[in-house]
Write a structure and sequence with these properties.
Length: 193
């Protein structure tokens, strides 16, 4: 198997080079991603993403990214952007897709097309404080993959399983993790230009 070929837009030589570098120096695997957010009004708030730590050094994106959250009118805001739980579905879709495509490339499998549909069920009684018996977040998420790849159905199922097994966002939403919230001036950084 040649490791220098491009598959699915992934440079396999660089992919395997990254894997070998991390095996040799595990500290290179440590990353910290950051988002700076500022409330606008109602349900609208804006995030700026521009710097992160990775591969042993501080880095910046080529250009800052700006994301807007809002709520639809039925949830009392202006519907100027997706709401935060829709962004969670987007993050999960993006991470599972990327994980599947990268692992397919590592195994020499060409992906011709991949589309997914994600649905999350949420009961507002938890968010509104009307019931302590109702979860505040999604109670269930369903994902359906439509995958056309150069492999049989069993291998496609294996690729979906690999995506779940290795996706950071899948891990975040399917397992609990500690989140600390505190007051402090360190949060004061412009969220949007």
């Amino acid at each position: 198997m040649t490791r220098s070929t491009m598959i699915n837009g992934v440079d396999r030589q660089k992919l395997f080079g990254t894997i070998e570098a991390i095996k040799a120096t595990p500290s290179l695997a440590g990353f910290q991603f950051r988002v700076f957010n500022q409330w606008v009004e109602g349900g609208e708030n804006r995030s700026r993403i521009d710097d992160y730590y990775g591969a042993g050094e501080e880095m910046r994106h080529a250009t800052p990214f700006f994301l807007v959250n809002d709520e639809p009118p039925v949830l009392l805001s202006g519907d100027k952007a997706p709401n935060p739980v829709e962004y969670v579905l987007h993050a999960l879709a993006g991470c599972l897709t990327t994980s599947l495509v990268y692992h397919a490339a590592a195994h020499g499998i060409a992906v011709k097309s991949l589309t997914t549909r994600f649905e999350g069920d949420l009961d507002l009684r938890g968010f509104l404080g009307l019931s302590n018996d109702v979860r505040r977040g999604f109670s269930n998420i369903r994902a359906v993959f439509d995958l056309d790849a150069d492999c049989d159905e069993a291998k496609k199922q294996e690729l979906v399983a690999m995506a779940q097994a290795h996706s950071p966002v899948f891990d975040i939403v399917s397992n609990g993790l500690p989140v600390s919230c505190m007051l402090g001036a360190s949060a004061r950084r412009p969220a949007a230009a």
